[in-house]
Amino acid sequence: MVLIHTTNHTYSHPFPTVTLAFFLRYCSPQLNPFASHVLSTDTIASHIDPSTGRLHTTRIHLKKSRLPPAVMKLLPATLTGGTSDKASYILETSTVDMREGWMATESRNLNFVGVLSVVERQLYAVPKTGLAAAAAADNNNNTTTDVETKVVYRSRLGERIRDRLGQAQAQAEAAVSEGGGGFFARLGARGIQRSIETLASTKTQDQLGKSREGMRMILERLRQTGVMGVLELRKMANQRGMEAAAH
After folding, report:
1. Which sign does the torsion angle of CA 163, 167, 170, 176 carry?
2. What residues form the membrane-spanning segments (predicted)?
3. Burial classification of residue 1, based on how many CB atoms lie within 10 Å of its CB (0-12 exposed, 13-18 middle, 19 or more buried)
4. What's the farthest any 2 CA atoms get from each other in the chain?
Protein backbone atom coordinates (compact mmCIF):
# COMPACT_ATOMS: atom_id res chain seq x y z
CA MET A 1 0.00 0.00 0.00
CA VAL A 2 1.27 3.47 -0.90
CA LEU A 3 0.03 6.82 0.41
CA ILE A 4 0.74 10.08 -1.44
CA HIS A 5 0.34 13.52 0.12
CA THR A 6 0.60 16.63 -2.09
CA THR A 7 0.59 20.28 -0.99
CA ASN A 8 1.14 23.61 -2.75
CA HIS A 9 2.46 26.80 -1.22
CA THR A 10 3.62 30.24 -2.33
CA TYR A 11 6.43 32.15 -0.62
CA SER A 12 6.30 35.94 -0.78
CA HIS A 13 9.97 36.09 -1.70
CA PRO A 14 11.87 35.95 -5.01
CA PHE A 15 13.17 32.63 -6.27
CA PRO A 16 16.91 33.27 -5.61
CA THR A 17 16.17 34.11 -1.96
CA VAL A 18 13.95 31.05 -1.47
CA THR A 19 16.64 28.84 -3.02
CA LEU A 20 19.25 30.23 -0.63
CA ALA A 21 16.90 29.77 2.33
CA PHE A 22 16.43 26.12 1.37
CA PHE A 23 20.16 25.47 1.73
CA LEU A 24 20.37 27.49 4.97
CA ARG A 25 17.26 26.07 6.66
CA TYR A 26 19.24 23.61 8.81
CA CYS A 27 22.29 25.81 9.43
CA SER A 28 21.47 26.54 13.08
CA PRO A 29 18.56 25.94 15.50
CA GLN A 30 19.13 29.50 16.74
CA LEU A 31 18.24 30.77 13.28
CA ASN A 32 15.52 28.19 12.73
CA PRO A 33 14.08 26.70 15.94
CA PHE A 34 11.84 24.46 13.83
CA ALA A 35 14.98 22.54 12.81
CA SER A 36 15.92 21.41 16.32
CA HIS A 37 15.29 17.79 15.23
CA VAL A 38 18.20 18.03 12.76
CA LEU A 39 21.33 16.74 14.48
CA SER A 40 23.84 17.36 11.67
CA THR A 41 24.14 18.23 7.98
CA ASP A 42 26.97 17.39 5.58
CA THR A 43 27.47 18.15 1.89
CA ILE A 44 28.62 15.04 0.02
CA ALA A 45 28.93 16.53 -3.47
CA SER A 46 28.19 19.77 -5.28
CA HIS A 47 28.96 20.78 -8.85
CA ILE A 48 27.73 22.94 -11.72
CA ASP A 49 27.02 21.19 -15.00
CA PRO A 50 28.94 23.29 -17.57
CA SER A 51 26.54 22.34 -20.36
CA THR A 52 23.37 23.45 -18.56
CA GLY A 53 24.62 25.78 -15.82
CA ARG A 54 22.60 23.79 -13.28
CA LEU A 55 23.82 23.29 -9.72
CA HIS A 56 23.64 19.68 -8.51
CA THR A 57 24.05 19.08 -4.77
CA THR A 58 23.90 15.99 -2.58
CA ARG A 59 23.66 16.33 1.19
CA ILE A 60 23.02 13.98 4.07
CA HIS A 61 21.11 14.98 7.20
CA LEU A 62 20.98 13.16 10.52
CA LYS A 63 17.58 13.73 12.08
CA LYS A 64 15.59 12.43 14.97
CA SER A 65 13.46 9.65 13.54
CA ARG A 66 10.21 10.61 11.83
CA LEU A 67 8.65 7.36 12.97
CA PRO A 68 6.28 8.38 15.78
CA PRO A 69 6.23 6.42 19.07
CA ALA A 70 2.84 4.95 18.14
CA VAL A 71 4.44 3.30 15.09
CA MET A 72 7.41 2.04 17.08
CA LYS A 73 5.05 0.38 19.54
CA LEU A 74 3.48 -1.56 16.67
CA LEU A 75 6.80 -3.17 15.84
CA PRO A 76 8.61 -6.03 17.55
CA ALA A 77 11.89 -5.30 19.35
CA THR A 78 13.80 -7.27 16.70
CA LEU A 79 13.09 -4.42 14.27
CA THR A 80 13.40 -1.43 16.60
CA GLY A 81 16.26 -2.52 18.84
CA GLY A 82 13.96 -2.26 21.84
CA THR A 83 13.86 1.55 21.97
CA SER A 84 11.96 4.35 20.23
CA ASP A 85 14.86 6.81 20.57
CA LYS A 86 16.12 6.58 16.99
CA ALA A 87 17.95 8.81 14.53
CA SER A 88 17.51 8.58 10.79
CA TYR A 89 19.85 9.47 7.93
CA ILE A 90 18.16 11.46 5.17
CA LEU A 91 19.68 11.68 1.69
CA GLU A 92 18.87 14.97 -0.05
CA THR A 93 19.55 15.69 -3.72
CA SER A 94 18.79 18.97 -5.46
CA THR A 95 19.09 20.56 -8.88
CA VAL A 96 18.90 24.33 -9.33
CA ASP A 97 18.43 26.10 -12.65
CA MET A 98 18.65 29.83 -12.03
CA ARG A 99 18.18 30.76 -15.68
CA GLU A 100 14.93 28.84 -16.07
CA GLY A 101 13.84 29.64 -12.52
CA TRP A 102 13.28 26.24 -10.87
CA MET A 103 14.74 23.93 -8.25
CA ALA A 104 13.88 20.24 -7.87
CA THR A 105 14.70 18.43 -4.63
CA GLU A 106 14.29 14.91 -3.30
CA SER A 107 14.76 13.61 0.24
CA ARG A 108 14.54 9.98 1.33
CA ASN A 109 15.32 8.04 4.49
CA LEU A 110 18.29 5.67 4.34
CA ASN A 111 17.49 3.58 7.39
CA PHE A 112 14.20 2.11 8.63
CA VAL A 113 13.35 1.52 4.96
CA GLY A 114 12.44 -2.03 5.91
CA VAL A 115 9.68 -0.53 8.04
CA LEU A 116 8.73 2.66 6.20
CA SER A 117 10.05 4.41 3.10
CA VAL A 118 9.37 8.17 2.94
CA VAL A 119 10.29 10.05 -0.23
CA GLU A 120 9.68 13.79 -0.37
CA ARG A 121 9.94 15.62 -3.70
CA GLN A 122 9.66 19.38 -4.04
CA LEU A 123 9.57 21.66 -7.05
CA TYR A 124 10.29 25.33 -6.42
CA ALA A 125 9.59 27.60 -9.36
CA VAL A 126 9.06 31.17 -10.43
CA PRO A 127 5.34 31.56 -11.26
CA LYS A 128 4.88 31.08 -15.00
CA THR A 129 3.37 34.53 -15.47
CA GLY A 130 6.18 36.08 -13.46
CA LEU A 131 8.81 34.13 -15.37
CA ALA A 132 7.47 35.39 -18.69
CA ALA A 133 7.49 38.96 -17.42
CA ALA A 134 11.02 38.56 -16.06
CA ALA A 135 12.25 37.17 -19.37
CA ALA A 136 10.68 40.08 -21.23
CA ALA A 137 12.30 42.58 -18.88
CA ASP A 138 15.57 40.63 -18.75
CA ASN A 139 15.60 40.60 -14.93
CA ASN A 140 14.58 38.39 -12.02
CA ASN A 141 12.51 40.74 -9.90
CA ASN A 142 9.62 38.35 -9.25
CA THR A 143 8.46 38.67 -5.68
CA THR A 144 6.92 35.21 -5.20
CA THR A 145 7.98 31.58 -5.52
CA ASP A 146 5.67 28.58 -5.87
CA VAL A 147 6.49 25.20 -4.36
CA GLU A 148 4.78 21.86 -4.81
CA THR A 149 5.57 19.17 -2.25
CA LYS A 150 4.76 15.51 -2.82
CA VAL A 151 5.46 12.93 -0.12
CA VAL A 152 5.17 9.22 -0.87
CA TYR A 153 4.88 6.76 2.04
CA ARG A 154 5.35 3.05 1.57
CA SER A 155 5.37 0.47 4.34
CA ARG A 156 7.54 -2.43 3.20
CA LEU A 157 7.04 -4.28 6.47
CA GLY A 158 3.47 -5.18 5.63
CA GLU A 159 4.50 -6.26 2.14
CA ARG A 160 7.23 -8.56 3.48
CA ILE A 161 4.88 -10.07 6.02
CA ARG A 162 2.26 -10.68 3.36
CA ASP A 163 4.78 -12.28 1.01
CA ARG A 164 6.22 -14.52 3.71
CA LEU A 165 2.96 -15.63 5.16
CA GLY A 166 1.23 -16.39 1.89
CA GLN A 167 -1.27 -19.10 2.54
CA ALA A 168 -0.44 -19.01 6.24
CA GLN A 169 -2.03 -15.55 6.40
CA ALA A 170 -5.42 -16.98 5.61
CA GLN A 171 -4.89 -19.60 8.29
CA ALA A 172 -3.85 -16.91 10.76
CA GLU A 173 -6.97 -14.88 10.00
CA ALA A 174 -9.03 -17.99 10.57
CA ALA A 175 -7.25 -18.44 13.90
CA VAL A 176 -8.08 -14.85 14.84
CA SER A 177 -11.74 -15.49 14.24
CA GLU A 178 -11.44 -18.33 16.74
CA GLY A 179 -9.66 -16.11 19.27
CA GLY A 180 -6.10 -17.30 18.59
CA GLY A 181 -3.07 -16.08 16.69
CA GLY A 182 -0.08 -13.98 17.58
CA PHE A 183 0.80 -10.33 17.13
CA PHE A 184 0.92 -10.30 13.33
CA ALA A 185 -2.04 -12.64 13.06
CA ARG A 186 -4.18 -10.36 15.22
CA LEU A 187 -3.27 -7.21 13.39
CA GLY A 188 -2.65 -8.65 9.93
CA ALA A 189 -0.12 -7.56 7.34
CA ARG A 190 -2.45 -5.03 5.75
CA GLY A 191 -3.39 -3.64 9.14
CA ILE A 192 0.24 -3.13 10.14
CA GLN A 193 1.04 -1.58 6.79
CA ARG A 194 -1.93 0.78 6.88
CA SER A 195 -1.28 1.80 10.49
CA ILE A 196 2.37 2.62 9.86
CA GLU A 197 1.64 4.64 6.72
CA THR A 198 -1.29 6.55 8.23
CA LEU A 199 0.53 7.45 11.44
CA ALA A 200 3.67 8.50 9.57
CA SER A 201 1.57 10.54 7.13
CA THR A 202 -0.08 12.44 9.99
CA LYS A 203 3.32 13.08 11.57
CA THR A 204 4.81 14.29 8.29
CA GLN A 205 1.93 16.69 7.59
CA ASP A 206 2.70 18.33 10.92
CA GLN A 207 6.40 18.47 9.99
CA LEU A 208 5.61 20.09 6.63
CA GLY A 209 3.86 22.92 8.44
CA LYS A 210 6.85 23.40 10.72
CA SER A 211 9.19 23.24 7.73
CA ARG A 212 7.33 26.12 6.05
CA GLU A 213 7.50 28.15 9.27
CA GLY A 214 11.23 27.49 9.47
CA MET A 215 11.70 28.62 5.88
CA ARG A 216 9.75 31.81 6.65
CA MET A 217 12.06 32.57 9.57
CA ILE A 218 15.18 32.15 7.42
CA LEU A 219 13.60 34.25 4.64
CA GLU A 220 12.75 37.06 7.05
CA ARG A 221 16.29 37.04 8.44
CA LEU A 222 17.66 37.23 4.90
CA ARG A 223 15.34 40.15 4.20
CA GLN A 224 16.33 41.99 7.38
CA THR A 225 20.07 41.30 7.60
CA GLY A 226 21.08 40.07 4.14
CA VAL A 227 23.17 37.00 3.33
CA MET A 228 26.25 38.15 5.26
CA GLY A 229 24.12 38.92 8.29
CA VAL A 230 22.65 35.40 8.32
CA LEU A 231 26.08 33.82 7.85
CA GLU A 232 27.46 35.91 10.71
CA LEU A 233 24.58 34.85 12.96
CA ARG A 234 25.26 31.22 12.03
CA LYS A 235 28.94 31.65 12.86
CA MET A 236 28.12 33.17 16.25
CA ALA A 237 25.60 30.41 17.00
CA ASN A 238 28.14 27.72 16.11
CA GLN A 239 30.77 29.36 18.32
CA ARG A 240 28.35 29.45 21.26
CA GLY A 241 27.53 25.80 20.65
CA MET A 242 31.22 24.84 20.67
CA GLU A 243 31.83 26.82 23.86
CA ALA A 244 28.86 25.17 25.55
CA ALA A 245 30.09 21.72 24.49
CA ALA A 246 33.57 22.48 25.86
CA HIS A 247 32.09 23.23 29.28
Report:
1. negative
2. none
3. middle
4. 74
Which CATH number describes the domain made up of 2-246? 3.30.530.20
Residues in the chain: 247
Inter-residue contact 5 to 89 (CB < 8 Å) = no
HEC string of 30-88 equals CCCHHHCCEEEEEEEEEEECCCCCCEEEEEEEEEECCCCHHHHHHCCHHHHCCCCCCEE
Residue ranges per domain, the chain? 2-246
Determine contact, residues 190/197, Cβ cutoff 8 Å: no
Dist. CA 67–CA 114, nearest whole Å: 12
- How many Å apart are CA 46 and CA 123, to the nearest integer? 19
